[in-house]
Structure formats: structure tokens, C-alpha cells
């Protein structure tokens, strides 16, 4: 619990830099949500200790305590129906802070979910997972801001991770690592070209031709198309679900990932298929090369896209 609190407080100065109204508003939203979730976790721990006379959390025998714990972790991770803060907060902060929020900040709650997975309630987990993948797909359909699209993508990926937490927790960790690599690569590309909207991508070929190809590959990997890395965890998760006879859940998850693929394809179309000499109706933007470091982009792209082949 203390680790989670320190984790929350440590990122808030990063979110509020540079100091302006939008950053501060996002940081307050994030803080209130995380503080509420932490209080529920503390309540679950105390309730479990009161009912069972033990402070351990790895095998929680009390059903209410595990339910509260699962819901609190769902709030921390931004799973539906507690997902409303994720797009708002991600949209209001800079790209670098957004990258940390959607990658590094997921590690602590996921590790707790991994540790308490033997005592979790399957029905609640499946409900959270399916609603997250569906809402993560639907929410991103009408967005034009890339940060919001990546936030909804994060919600959908968290749904995939949650559904397998009880059956095979190791797959949840594998999915998290591949998701972190792909999201970091995407944010680094956007940060390098200072791009935050879809229409700004239409002239990406003018800024950097290799970057357009990189963004296309990363997005296809995030969507889970073979033979890219992003296909591997989805394939393994669907396989596990079918082995354990959860065929309806597997069908719903597979169909909901098509929603994600749709808005990824829209970004790909804008950035790569509107290249010269095809007609492009959007205005050119002034672009100057900035001395930002790019050494991470190649390695992250290789991990997030080329691992499976």
C-alpha cells in the first residue's frame, strides 16, 4: 500500500511540469482517483485482517476483501467502468508524462494483481476485462487526439491482461511487457516529431519518411496483427481461454480487438497512405528538426514489432 502511495506522489511533479492549468487539472484528477483506490485497498487489507486475524494478502480467504481489492486495482489500472479518468488525464499532460503514465505506472498495480491472482473472483475479472476491451475500442473510434487514442488503447490492453490473470498470470506479465515496449516506441516517435493530433500525421512523410513506416509497424503490432510481436500475447490468451472452455469470452475479446484495429488503421491511413503525390487536403505545418535523443526508438521498435518473427 505504501509503495502504491509513493508511486502516485512521485509522478505528480512530473505531470505538473511545465506548470500550467491543464497539467495541474490532470494531476489533480489523477491524484483524486489514485487516492480513492488506495483508500479502498487499505480498507480491504484491514477488513481481511479483522475477519481472518492475519495480515497476509497472497491468499485472501474473505470474498469481500478480494472483491474490494480487485475493484481498487481496476481503478488504479483504469479498467472499465472506472476508466473515465485515463483519457482525460493523458490528454492534459505532455507526451513524456503520458508515456510514463501509460507504461511505468501500470507495473505496480499489475504486480499486486499477479500476487493475489489465486484468490480472485473469476466473474468480476471477466466482466471487467470484457467491458474494458469493448469500451476501449468504442471510446477511441471518434477521437482525433493521439494521446486519447493511446489512452483508450491502454484500457483495451488492460482488459486483455485482466482476463488471463486468474488462468495464467505469467501471460499477463508477458502481455504487459510487450504493451509497454510498443506504447513507449509510439510515444517516443510522437515526441520526436511533436505530434499530438491525427491531422498532423498527414505530413509525416515530409518530416521523416522512416518515421512513417515505424509508426505504421508499431500501430499494427499494438493492434495484434501477425507476424508482429503484438499478435503473440493475444494468440496465447485466446488459446488459454479456449482450453479452459471460455469460448464466449474469447469470441468477445477477439471481436472487440477489431474496434481497436479500426482506429489504428485510420492513423496508418492518415500518416502513410496520404504520401506525395496523392491529393492531401490538410495544411502543411512548419517543422524544425529538434536535437531530441532518438537512440531508444530503434530498439523499442524492434522489441515491439520484430520479436515474433
TrEMBL record:
Its main location: mitochondrion. Residues 1-258 form the NADH:quinone oxidoreductase/Mrp antiporter transmembrane domain. One of its GO terms (molecular function) is NADH dehydrogenase (ubiquinone) activity. The gene is ND2. Pfam families: NADH_dehy_S2_C (PF06444), Proton_antipo_M (PF00361). Its EC number is 7.1.1.2. It comes from Perameles gunnii (Eastern barred bandicoot). This is NADH-ubiquinone oxidoreductase chain 2. Core subunit of the mitochondrial membrane respiratory chain NADH dehydrogenase (Complex I) which catalyzes electron transfer from NADH through the respiratory chain, using ubiquinone as an electron acceptor. Essential for the catalytic activity and assembly of complex I. The chain crosses the membrane at residues 30-52, 64-86, 122-142, 149-167, 173-192, 242-265. Belongs to the complex I subunit 2 family. PANTHER family: NADH-UBIQUINONE OXIDOREDUCTASE CHAIN 2 (PTHR46552:SF1). It is found in: Mitochondrion inner membrane. GO terms for cellular component: mitochondrial inner membrane. Residues 261-309 form the NADH dehydrogenase subunit 2 C-terminal domain.
Amino acid at each position: 500500500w505504501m509503495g502504491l502511495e509513493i508511486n502516485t506522489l512521485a509522478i505528480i511533479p512530473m505531470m505538473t511540469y511545465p506548470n500550467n492549468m491543464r497539467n495541474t487539472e490532470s494531476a489533480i484528477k489523477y491524484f483524486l482517483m489514485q487516492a480513492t483506490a488506495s483508500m479502498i485497498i487499505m480498507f480491504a487489507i484491514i477488513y481481511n485482517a479483522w475477519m481472518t486475524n492475519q495480515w497476509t494478502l497472497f491468499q485472501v480467504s474473505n470474498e469481500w476483501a478480494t472483491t474490494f481489492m480487485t475493484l481498487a486495482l481496476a481503478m488504479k489500472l483504469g479498467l472499465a467502468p472506472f476508466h473515465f479518468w485515463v483519457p482525460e488525464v493523458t490528454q492534459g499532460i505532455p507526451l513524456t508524462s503520458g508515456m510514463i503514465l501509460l507504461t511505468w505506472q501500470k507495473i505496480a498495480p499489475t504486480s499486486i494483481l499477479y500476487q493475489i491472482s489465486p484468490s480472485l473472483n473469476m466473474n468480476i475479472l471477466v466482466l471487467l476485462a470484457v467491458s474494458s476491451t469493448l469500451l476501449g475500442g468504442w471510446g477511441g473510434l471518434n477521437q482525433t487526439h493521439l494521446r486519447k487514442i493511446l489512452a483508450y488503447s491502454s484500457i483495451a490492453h488492460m482488459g486483455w491482461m485482466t482476463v488471463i490473470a486468474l488462468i495464467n498470470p505469467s501471460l499477463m506479465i508477458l502481455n504487459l511487457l510487450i504493451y509497454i515496449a510498443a506504447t513507449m516506441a509510439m510515444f517516443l516517435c510522437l515526441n520526436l516529431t511533436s505530434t499530438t493530433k491525427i491531422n498532423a500525421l498527414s505530413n509525416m512523410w515530409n518530416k521523416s519518411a522512416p518515421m512513417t513506416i515505424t509508426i505504421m509497424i508499431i500501430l499494427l503490432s499494438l493492434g495484434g496483427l501477425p507476424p508482429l510481436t503484438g499478435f503473440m500475447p493475444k494468440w496465447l490468451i485466446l488459446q488459454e481461454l479456449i482450453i479452459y472452455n471460455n469460448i464466449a469470452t474469447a469470441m468477445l475479446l477477439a471481436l472487440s480487438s477489431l474496434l481497436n484495429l479500426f482506429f489504428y488503421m485510420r492513423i496508418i491511413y492518415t500518416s502513410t497512405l496520404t504520401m506525395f503525390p496523392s491529393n492531401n487536403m490538410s495544411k502543411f505545418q512548419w517543422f524544425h528538426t529538434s536535437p531530441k535523443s532518438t537512440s531508444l526508438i530503434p530498439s523499442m521498435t524492434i522489441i515491439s514489432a520484430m520479436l515474433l518473427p
